């Protein structure tokens, strides 16, 4: 199993380009199942989860071609299977996103129930309730979701709780339903809006994406189009925190700072100076030690749960103590015990971690458990004394494109070893 070796102590300096957003490209690839004609998807990040999604679509008979610039042409007219097998879904929960498109376009779908994962049980009950409310017949048997429907009917949905992929699945299902679907208490994440923008370019009629109430007026057909994926705000945030932790000065290009408000506010509270324009953001810590910040995760536009582990790492070496409250997932502190092995002073009670900054962390062999936890261990390694060894980095490859190359470009001493 590959590992990352990080020799701490370098402050990050320079500039890098941010990749396309994992959590935007995955629903957009699922949306290609709705198109009656080929689609060109651009600014696709080179990630394991993208490869997995292409494999899933390929197994269904969808034709996919990838060009040298990682643009993907997808043509679902050759589809011959409406089935998402367990062996693929278990490696990537976001496979559930094919359910809505398959059901609304072809009237049936067999999709494996995604298992839970390290950060929580992550049920999909809200996805299924919404589809049933639109007229689908759904039976869960043998670990699979068996869904059937005549043409789905537009309806008024009020989501019991905010769900990003739940909103995306139901929005996609509603595009070809008869009549209008209203989704209240919808997720407002920028990736939901990016999907809606792509669907509208395909001929859908969606209003209100990015707000808590989305209206989808059903149409007869969706067509292929060319679409360039939104920049990854979580990759952007991760590199901003890496710079803050190491006291560095970095500019991140090809990103959208307007989707980073809650993250930038916390970095300013930590003592960073931040400058940004339409498509870049620059952070300077002037080699200073950051100040601790208090974080409480919640749905967008509040502070994102996907940035919680990274700020936990920042608080580990910051001045003072900070409270981290995780209100979205029930078990997203696995990185804590790994950081404690590096000398961090963290006390966890329920869904709150009190982090008291220490002057220095000491390198140790640590183990990644989920995507963002593994990123936070790399950040801790950047400032720890000695060589940190991060194991099970397949987690990191799911969601960060060429992370060690980008960090090396900024002056970090990091390399990948085969095992
Ligand atoms: C999306 O996951 C993201 N993944 C996650 O990013 C992100 O952490 C999460 O949204 C929250 O922002 C993708 O977009 C592919 P949810 P999702 O449904 O949609 C509960 C990363 O690191 N819930 O918004 O699965 C659920 O258990 C990943 O890039 C139900 O109870 O998250 C959780 O507690 C990790 N029933 C809460 O809602 C449901 O039917 C929010 O989950 C659905 C969700």
Task: Please describe what this structure looks like.
Helix 4 packs parallel to helix 6, helix 8 (233-245) runs parallel beside helix 10 (308-316) and helix 8 packs parallel to helix 12. This protein is of the alpha/beta class. It has helices at residues 22-31, 48-59, 86-89, 99-106, 125-133, 164-174, 190-201, 233-245, 261-269, 308-316, 334-341, 371-383, 394-399, 403-409; strands at residues 3-7, 13-17, 39-42, 63-66, 72-75, 83-84, 108-112, 137-141, 144-148, 156-158, 180-184, 206-207, 213-217, 226-228, 249-253, 273-277, 280-284, 295-296, 321-325, 345-349, 352-356, 365-367, 387-391, 413-417. The protein has a four-stranded mixed sheet. A four-stranded mixed sheet has the order 2-15-17-16, with helices on one face. A four-stranded mixed sheet has the order 4-5-3-14, covered by helices on one side. The longest helix is centred in the middle third of the chain and has 13 residues, at 233-245. The protein is built from 14 helices and 24 strands. The protein is 31% helix and 24% strand. Residues 22-23, 26, 94, 120, 122-127, 161, 163-166, 305-306, 328-329, 371-372, 399 line the site of ligand EPZ.
Write the layout of secondary structure elements.
Blueprint: E1 3-7, E2 13-17, H1 22-31, E3 39-42, H2 48-59, E4 63-66, E5 72-75, E6 83-84, H3 86-89, H4 99-106, E7 108-112, H5 125-133, E8 137-141, E9 144-148, E10 156-158, H6 164-174, E11 180-184, H7 190-201, E12 206-207, E13 213-217, E14 226-228, H8 233-245, E15 249-253, H9 261-269, E16 273-277, E17 280-284, E18 295-296, H10 308-316, E19 321-325, H11 334-341, E20 345-349, E21 352-356, E22 365-367, H12 371-383, E23 387-391, H13 394-399, H14 403-409, E24 413-417
Parallel strand pairs: 2-15, 3-14, 6-7, 10-11, 18-19, 22-23
Antiparallel strand pairs: 1-23, 1-24, 3-5, 4-5, 7-9, 8-9, 11-13, 12-13, 15-17, 16-17, 19-21, 20-21
Helix pairs in contact: 1-2, 1-7, 4-6, 5-6, 6-7, 8-10, 8-12, 10-12, 11-12
């Amino acid at each position: 199993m590959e590992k990352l070796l990080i020799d701490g102590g370098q402050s990050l300096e320079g500039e890098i380009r941010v990749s396309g957003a994992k959590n935007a490209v995955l629903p957009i690839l699922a949306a290609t199942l709705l198109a009656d004609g080929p689609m060109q998807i651009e600014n696709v990040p080179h990630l394991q989860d993208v490869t997995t999604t292409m494999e899933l679509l390929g197994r269904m008979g969808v034709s996919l071609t990838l060009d040298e610039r990682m643009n993907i042409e997808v043509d679902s007219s050759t589809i011959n299977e409406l089935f998402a097998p367990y062996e693929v879904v278990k490696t990537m929960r976001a496979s559930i996103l094919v359910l809505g498109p398959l059901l609304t376009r072809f009237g049936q779908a067999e999709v494996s129930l995604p298992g839970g994962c390290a950060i929580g049980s992550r049920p999909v009950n809200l996805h299924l309730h919404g589809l049933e409310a639109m007229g689908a017949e759904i039976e869960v048997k043998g670990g699979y979701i068996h869904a059937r429907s005549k043409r789905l009917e537009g309806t008024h949905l009020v989501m019991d709780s905010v769900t990003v992929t739940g909103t995306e699945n139901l929005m996609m299902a509603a595009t070809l339903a008869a009549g209008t679907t209203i989704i209240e208490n919808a997720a407002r994440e920028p990736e939901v809006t990016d999907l809606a923008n792509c669907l509208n370019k395909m001929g859908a009629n969606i209003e209100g994406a990015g707000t808590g109430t989305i209206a989808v007026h059903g149409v007869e057909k969706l067509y292929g189009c060319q679409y360039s994926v939104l920049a990854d705000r979580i990759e952007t945030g991760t590199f901003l925190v890496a710079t803050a932790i190491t006291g560095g000065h970095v500019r991140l290009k090809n990103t959208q700072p307007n989707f980073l408000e809650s993250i930038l506010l916390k970095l300013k509270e930590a003592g960073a100076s931040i400058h940004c324009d339409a498509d870049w953001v620059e952070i300077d810590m002037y080699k200073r030690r950051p100040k601790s910040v208090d974080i409480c995760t919640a749905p967008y536009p509040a502070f994102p749960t996907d940035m919680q582990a990274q700020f936990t790492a920042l608080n580990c070496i910051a001045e003072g103590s900070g409270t981290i409250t995780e209100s979205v997932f029930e078990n997203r502190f696995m990185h804590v015990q790994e950081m404690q092995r590096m000398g961090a002073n963290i006390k966890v009670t329920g869904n709150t971690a009190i982090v008291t900054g220490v002057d220095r962390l000491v390198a140790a062999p640590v183990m990644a458990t989920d995507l963002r936890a593994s990123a936070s261990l790399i950040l801790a390694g950047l400032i720890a004394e000695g060589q940190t060894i991060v194991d099970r980095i397949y987690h990191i490859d799911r969601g960060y494109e060429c992370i060690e190359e980008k960090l090396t470009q900024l002056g970090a001493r990091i390399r990948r070893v085969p095992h």
